[in-house]
From TrEMBL:
This is Secreted protein. It comes from Nocardioides pinisoli.
Length: 128
């Protein structure tokens, strides 16, 4: 009977350790990615920064009114341009860009500016 209790106790302890390990991994994954969402001039945007391969992957998305619109897109890490150019919305009215930066997501301020051909710029910032 003692062996059975020891085995059951060992299994229960292992389940707690595995559960805590999963909780820790999920908690750290949440801290490793940050994002902001908002609207501007009839468009919806999202800016995210996520720890990736020893650096930071910065993603920016725009959902506008329609397909075929030209937008100037600039993604910055502090004052350094990670991406700068013109993008055209796809058939769903979306623009999705990714850029890579050295350093951790929390070490800098990231910004994206989406500027339509005939309108006001939409700027989003993320970080300190």
């Amino acid at each position: 009977m003692q062996k059975k209790k020891a085995v059951i106790g060992g299994v229960a302890a292992a389940a707690v350790v595995v559960g805590l390990g999963s909780w820790w991994a999920v908690g750290n994954a949440v801290e490793a990615q940050t994002s902001e969402r908002g609207t501007c001039g009839g468009a919806t945007w999202e800016l995210s920064a996520e720890a990736e391969d020893g650096g930071t992957e910065v993603g920016a998305e725009l959902q506008s009114a329609g397909p075929g619109e030209e937008w100037q897109v600039e993604v910055l890490r502090d004052d350094t341009a990670l991406l700068d150019g013109t993008r055209t919305t796809d058939e769903d009215g979306e623009i999705d860009v990714d850029a890579f930066s050295d350093g951790n997501p929390g070490d800098a301020t990231y910004a994206v500016t989406f500027t339509p051909a005939d309108g006001e710029p939409c700027t989003a910032t993320l970080g300190s």
